[in-house]
Amino acid sequence: VMMGFLETVQTLNLPPEQKAQYLEMMMDQGKRMKNLVEDLLTLANLEANSQPAPLNSISMSYLMSLIKNDAYALSQGKHALNMNLNTSCNLLGEEREVLSAFSNLVSNAIRYTPEVGSVTVSWGINAAGEGEFSVTDTGPGISSEHIPRLTERFYRVDRSRSRETGGTGLGLAIVKHVASRHQAQLVIESTLGKGSTFTLRFPPERIS
Question: Can you give the C-alpha Rg of the chain in angstroms?
């Protein structure tokens, strides 16, 4: 469909600005399809491997620098981004999977938080010795009846808003499977009109 549309645009005698607009639309659609395929492959790999993740030492200093850079790039200065990161403690697991889970939580918060809102990213050890990664936003919040289903594939609270933000609908499903592989717990707290907090809690044996 996309190729046919592009070929049609190329053959039409359109003003340059209109042709550029159509091409930009197709670029956006192409990026969405690419992201969807990548997320589907990631999810398929996670579902095919139910074994616990290896106990590889993950440098949280390095990982959090990636998360921080991606967050600022995605926000483009439109949000107040707060980083509360204790990078003296590391996590034991599969770095690629953990990065994917953390990135999904942060990107969701930024995409769903209105401009001039705030997103707070935290990593550290709680009183129980668990590793906690949390993302708190001042977005619209989520009604309680939706929360149990958020980690289902393609589940949408607001379909029109999801299309606007460019999400694939697979991010939280990926987070759920990464959490399972790392014996972690995903906790979702949200209040309509105030915002949400998504927390991943890793057991003490996953902390070094």
Answer: 19
Q: Are residues 80 and 178 located together in one domain of the fold?
A: yes
Instruction: Convert the pLDDT of each residue in 89-101 to its tens digit.
Output: 999 999 999 999 9
8 vs 176, which has greater pLDDT?
176
* Strand ranges across the sheet with 80-85: 80-85, 118-125, 131-137, 195-202, 185-191
The answer to whether the beta carbons of residues 101 and 150 sit under 8 Å apart is: no
Whether residue 2 is predicted with pLDDT greater than 70 in this model: the reply is no
β-bridge mates for residue 132, sequence order: 124, 201
**49, part of any domain:** no
Number of domains observed in the structure of the chain: 2
- Within a domain: residue 190? yes
* CB of 204 closer than 8 Å to CB of 129: yes
60 and 32 share one domain:
no
H-type alpha helices, the chain? 2-11, 16-48, 60-75, 95-112, 159-165, 171-181
Residues 95, 182: one domain? yes
Whose structure tokens read 């460019």? 166
Rounded to two decimals, the pTM is 0.81
